[in-house]
Amino acid sequence: MSEPKEVEHEITVSAPAAEVYRLIADVANWPRIFPPTIYVDHLERSGNEELIGIWATANGDAKNWTSRRVLDPDGLRITFRQTVSTPPVASMGGTWIIEPLDDTTARIRLLHDYTAVDDDPAGLAWIDEAVDRNSRSELAALKTNVELATASEELTFSFEDTVEVDGSAKDLYDFVNEADRWSERLPHVATVRLTEDTPGLQTLEMDTRAKDGSTHTTKSYRVCLDGRKIAYKQTTLPALMNLHTGYWTFRETDEGTFASSQHTVVLRPENIEKILGPDAGVAEAREYVQGALSTNSRATLNHAKAYAEARR
To answer: Which of 55, 73, 121, 251 has the fewest CB atoms within 10 Å around its CB?
Structure first.
């Protein structure tokens, strides 16, 4: 492998250091605050140490890896080390350091050290670019999201739709996983383009029909987890949304089999009046967006239900 290389990026934010640390420490926040992150899953947790699975884009390509983290809430530091890296990366680690400048301002320092496979100059150049691009993107997004955290509480909301199914969770999972067949199976889907170069990591583009007959194109990255969950992050967003993430879950319990679709949305307030009219506000935008997303989710859930029940 190549000689280790060390780089550092930093940014100053108008937010208390403890709040910045909290957002970074809780990986459930990552798809919301870091543009490259698609999904993060806890694999192991013990005290202040944890093993996490991360799915994210790097230079436009979807990648996944595992990383071990050590949390230091008193020192406002988080160290991380990839345990399984994806070529051309041979090893990757680093540290988040949060430094309070005063009660309402903090400096965030992001340190990386890494090596490339086979000391390959092209591989090292690819890593240099990916680390620099993602670090700048992550820090800029973190600054924006931390500073807007309090102001944007009403703009951020989550909801879930669930159906009970007289069938198996596996068949439900298969229906949602096989999105390449949605144009045959779902009336509101006109065309689908699905790629899965890495098993369980999908890129999904589709044209969806609205009630008025018009179509719009969406692109999402999806993480498919062992028949139990499919998490996604939408990367082409309608004008009313700054963020859209979600997941499908499939579970068999003593009470029955259930399929659910969860969404988390951050609204784009500057477009509300333009899209919904001068009298519309955040409440109307939330209702409108939830209605549109829920309509498509429920349609998919009900078709998945029919598919699973037909295969009993």
So the answer is: 121
Distance, in Å, from the CA atom of 310 to the CA atom of 175, rounded to the nearest integer, reads: 12
Long-range contacts of 95-99 (CB under 8 A, 24+ apart): 96/24, 98/17, 98/20, 98/21, 98/24, 99/17
pLDDT of residue 215: 87
Q: What is the pLDDT of residue 62?
A: 86
Give Cα 290 distance to the centre of its chain: 18
Structure-block tokens of residue 74: 């008193």
What digits encode the pLDDT tens for the residues 177-212?
999 999 999 999 999 999 998 899 999 999 988 778
The whole-angstrom separation of Cα 267 and Cα 230 is 23
Cβ–Cβ under 8 Å, residues 88 and 123: yes
What pTM, to 2 d.p., does this model score? 0.84
Q: Nearest-CA neighbor of 260 among 292, 223, 304?
A: 304
Nearest CA to 96 among 212, 17, 193? 17
By C-alpha distance, which of 70, 66, 89 is closest to 80? Answer: 70
